[in-house]
Amino acid sequence: MNTKLGGIFSLVFFVLSSIAILWGFFWIWSTEKRLKRFFLGKKAKDLEDTILALEDEIKKLNKARENVEKEIGVMNLKLKRCIRGIETVRFNPFPDQGSNQSFAIGMLNGDNDGVVISSLYSRERMSIFAKPVKGGRSEYELTAEEKEALRKAEVK
Fold this sequence. Notes:
Shape: rod-shaped
Helix content: 55-70%
Order of helices and strands: HHEEEEH
Number of domains: 2
Distance between the termini: 102 Å
Radius of gyration: 43 Å
Structural class: alpha+beta
Mean pLDDT: 87
Strand order of the largest sheet: 1-2-3-4
């Protein structure tokens, strides 16, 4: 009985070992197939070169992004100093003569600094005035029309 039992164990061991070996071969075969499909004819060195090239490109892109961010900051500072608000108000300073030939022009940047230019027109003469503006205010007295032009030209 011992020999029968030993023979059965040997047979079971042989069958299980054969199944394990077949399964191992199948696993190796399927892994090789997946790796061949992954590399598609490329060698490992080619793949490493590709990864290194991509890493270099990412570094270049990050450097370019930083440069663009700096340039945008500089452009925003310059834009703040440019005239961004402009408005014209026409009016008649002398009700007994002419029409709306006089005007006031307000020109302001992002800090509400700039100038207000006004012109008074009459049949005998024409006068032009320019008054500097800082922070939306002028150190010179402004007419109602000049104040209106500045109010409308304010950058919000």
